[in-house]
Design goal:
By secondary structure, the protein is an all-alpha fold. Helix content is 76%, strand content 0%. It contains 13 helices and no strands.
């Protein structure tokens, strides 16, 4: 597997899109509840890709449908609710930063469930990037120190783990299904449950009563179109063309984007954050180096 410039370009574009998703979630929460934001996001993505899923319905895997369903639930349903719930109590930049744990979970879960053997460069790269993420997190002041907020940090950690597992499932079970069609099938599976949740959440009552609800719909629509539908297509394509480990590197760049959005909200950039950004970039560099654990000496 050769990492080409187009793969790096895809990685950076995905980082920009998903790194901006957290601020869009935050804006959506100004108008709707976390459950409504998550359900509306999934519904929009499902409707957007519905023509594609119906057109290629004959490609829907029958024997491996349970793996598609598991990927959909773990990677595109539950996290869509966990992030808005957590962001009711945490800054959007914190959500983006903690999501970087996905790269670590790819290595851990890959070793446990998929017999994946990480090379030394990947381990060094992830550790460097994780240290960088911790340094970036220092800008959040007292927020992270509040004991009551640790539950919401845990929700974000669980979401990152789910993203990692769904990426590994995609790498193993997507097979010859095109990434566009795979993404469309995932959203098709989730469309009806999302609609049920949306209707029972009181969304339409909120839509009628909130004077600026249409503005909130605009934020969630952008989130669904770019952050769910289009981004997932290229993310799954990146997994298919490279592997889940490289594709998960997107989570190491996302904190930089999320942090930049935080700066626009007048957060301060200090020395630890600058060092953190440098470490994340170094982590990406070492993560692509095929270093070995030891060199065998021949006598």
């Amino acid at each position: 597997m050769e990492i080409k410039p187009k793969h790096w370009l895809t990685l950076f574009v995905l980082s920009l899109i998903w790194g901006s998703s957290f601020i869009l979630i935050k804006r959506g929460l100004d108008f709707f509840t976390p459950i409504q934001v998550g359900a509306l996001r999934i519904t929009f993505a499902g409707l957007f890709l519905l023509p594609t899923s119906l057109k290629h319905i004959q490609l829907l895997p029958k024997k491996g449908f349970h793996w598609l369903f598991l990927t959909a639930v773990v990677g595109s349903f539950i996290p869509m609710f966990l992030f808005p719930i957590a962001e009711m109590h945490l800054d959007s930049s914190v959500a983006g930063i903690l999501n970087a744990l996905m790269s670590i979970f790819v290595i851990i879960l890959g070793a446990i469930f998929f017999k994946y053997k990480a090379h030394l460069g990947e381990v060094i790269g992830v550790l460097l990037s994780f240290i960088g993420v911790v340094l970036l997190l220092q800008t959040q002041g007292d927020t992270i120190a509040e004991t009551g907020n640790w539950f919401y940090h845990l929700l974000l950690i669980i979401a990152a783990m789910m993203y990692a597992y769904s990426g590994l499932l995609t790498q193993k079970y997507m097979g010859n299904i095109p990434p566009l069609v795979w993404t469309a099938f995932i959203e098709l599976v989730l469309l009806l449950p999302a609609l049920i949740v949306l209707i029972t959440s009181g969304f339409f009552q909120t839509l009628m009563e909130h004077p600026e609800a249409l503005k909130g719909i605009g934020y969630v629509f952008l989130l669904a179109l770019f952050g769910s539908a289009l981004a997932n297509i290229y993310y799954y394509k990146l997994i298919k063309d490279t592997n889940a480990t490289f594709a998960s590197s997107v989570s190491l760049l996302m904190p930089l984007i999320a942090f930049c959005w935080g700066l626009l909200d007048e957060e301060k950039l200090g020395i630890p954050q600058i060092i953190g950004g440098v470490l994340i970039i170094l982590g990406l560099y070492f993560g692509r180096k095929k270093l070995t654990w030891f060199k065998r000496k021949h006598l």
